[in-house]
Amino acid sequence: MTTKHFNPRAKHHFAGRTCSIAGVGSYVPERILTNADLEKLVDTSDEWITTRTGIKERRIAAAGELTSDLATKAALRAMEMAGVTAEQIDLIIVASITPDMPFPNTACLVQQKIGARRIPSFDIEAACSGFIYALEVGQQFIQSHTYETVLVIGAEKLSAITNWKDRNTCVLFGDGAGAAVLRHRAAAGGLLTTVLGADGAKAELLSMPAGGSACPATAESVAQGLHFLRMDGKETFKNAVQAMCSAAKEALRRCQIDIKQIKCIIPHQANRRIIDAVGERLEATPEQLFVNLHKYGNTSAASVAIALDEAVREGRVQHGDLILIVAFGAGLTWGAAVIEW
Ligand code: UT7
Asked: What is the pLDDT of residues 32-79, one digit of tens each?
């Protein structure tokens, strides 16, 4: 699919110059935790995990390997693809629910690790939608001519907040990071539109109750497992399908693009059944859907970023192709974006 196949009026809503993804990169830790490994930890089976989620294995960071380390490795790969040096970066945004620590923010730590200048660096927390939120924020700075080069990263060490005794959640998540370098490129449409949304009324569905100011760490909070991720899986599932479909449809509507014109759909990699349900409702073909969750599980803010990097490096996306990315997560939050590559 090339630019000539879609309606150029789609670009009319742009207030400023366009913002493109000049390079992508990702990194996952070396250690692989398979479904067979999990069978030894909790009362589960490869058969249950595979049929209910599609996940076969996930990556687990080493003890001293931090979210900022994963983020740094992904960022360096994205910078290499973009042909951008650390000195050229004007802004760093990291999306994560597992920052190295509550503060300082992970973006500041990445700034130091990649050897960037003393540029503004901050985190965004929008759970699994975080990368799309961060893309939209980064894009605003490019479009407004405030900055030339923005580094956007989704990075997670979810293994640090996983209750390895809870079979309802521990089979689902993994660690990893994905990054994108944003710049204006005259030759590409770039980010054509972004749709973001949230519903705080459903905050309870997916959360980590302790560790913030509402419930600081105490011996009791630790004993109660309040520092682990919790999820109402069934309700989250329903909301994920609904929100991802409506966000994707709204993004396509705003660009006046038909789903058939999309070369590659990159959905948040939480559950194969969610991806299939979203694909079906969007009337997409299985070939359009990019899926890598069998290898990594749900990596939250890193999920779409890693998948985008893999899709690009596997040649699934060529210059001029249209991509639809769509995500959903705790908050509840959701987001979708149409990108002309
Ligand atoms: O990234 C943010 C968004 N996250 C998501 O979108 C995740 C959304 N939710 C899901 O993906 C699915 O709801 C799950 C994969 C979490 C669960 O699938 P489900 O089909 O909704 O299963 P369920 O929660 O209804 O559980 C069915 C049964 C239960 O047993 P009973 O009560 O029916 O006897 C669970 O205890 O499966 C049991 N179960 C397991 N059995 C073996 C739950 N986890 C496991 C497990 N192994 N790991």
From this structure: 999 999 999 999 999 999 999 999 999 999 999 999 999 999 999 999
Domain at 191-206+225-340, CATH homologous superfamily? Thiolase/Chalcone synthase (3.40.47.10)
Regarding the domain with residue range 20-188, which homologous superfamily does it belong to in the CATH classification? Thiolase/Chalcone synthase (3.40.47.10)
Catalytic residue list contains 168: no
Residue with tokens 């973006």: 107
236 C-beta closer than 6 A to ligand 1: yes
Same topology between domain 20-188 and domain 191-206+225-340: yes
Distance in angstroms (rounded) separating the CA atoms of residues 78 and 309: 9
| Residue 105: C-alpha distances to residues 32, 112, 303 (Å) | 28, 12, 20
Of all protein residues, the one whose alpha carbon is nearest to atom 36 of ligand 1 is: 168
Per-residue pLDDT at 185: 85
Ligand 1 pocket check for 298: Cβ under 6 Å: yes
